[in-house]
Amino acid sequence: MMAREDMPLAGMRLGLFGKGGAGKSTVTVLLADALVKRGYSVLVLDADSTNVGLAGALGIPRDPDPLLDYFGGMVFSGGLVTCPVDDPTPLQGAAVSIREIPERFVGHRDGLRLMVAGKMGALGPGAGCDGPVAKIARDLVVEDLGPEHVVLVDFKAGFEDSARGVVTSLDWGLVVVDPTVAAVQMAVHLSSMVDKIRAGVPPATQHLLERGDLVELAIRIFRDARVRGVAATLNRVADPSTESYLRVALTDRKIPVMGSFGADRTVEEQWLRGRRVQSAVLAQEAVTLVQNLELLVGRAQAVSTA
User: Fewest Cβ atoms closer than 10 Å to its Cβ: which of 9, 98, 117, 232?
Assistant: First the structure.
């Protein structure tokens, strides 16, 4: 096991974002495995309210029960978990010890744990939006994971969760970019949002004006955000020309590219059949991704302490 000073990602909370079909969950799996091999312990928080199959892709034999149940259900179904846009109030009891949370809420194997914020599919008609899932993803703090732990939060496709403020509790955002203009633009939007948060631009609060205390709370949450920046990794890149184009498109917009994954039909078959996602070629690319993330975070830490 490496010493903690040689593990710059230790204690980090990384959020994975991407447009639909970019391969965000595949990168989450590959990154989680690479981090474990590097010596980190990893907690994956599945914050995608609609996509399924992450447990099988991680090689975890069962789906954990949703944390929505642990926290009492979403407000739209009579529970206590509210949407962070309508109610920015922090989720009560969101700090939980991994030693105390019931086993049914945690899947695990070989240095890796999985928790699921919640899924919309089983909630029935009239359940409402999935904002409460985003609140769990924003506020959940799992304690007693050890000093070498990394938390990976796999968000749902699109930009909606970002706009709900989930980035405020992340250290870094990682956007998965496939060869589409929409994927590049999403990375640009997320990077711009984080830049504004770091510059002190307050969130939209016009809908909260009747509750001045909530306005002040929302502003404080964004003002105290810990997020340092946004990076990207390419995915489903078919050839060097496409990779070069995407790298230039992102770096020109000051979004550093940490890695590049090619297309792999074997991985698509594994997702289809609910098997563990494994690829020797992509696994090596994931090692490069981890190394580059360590360099990025290490440089940022050096600057902040200079």
Answer: 98
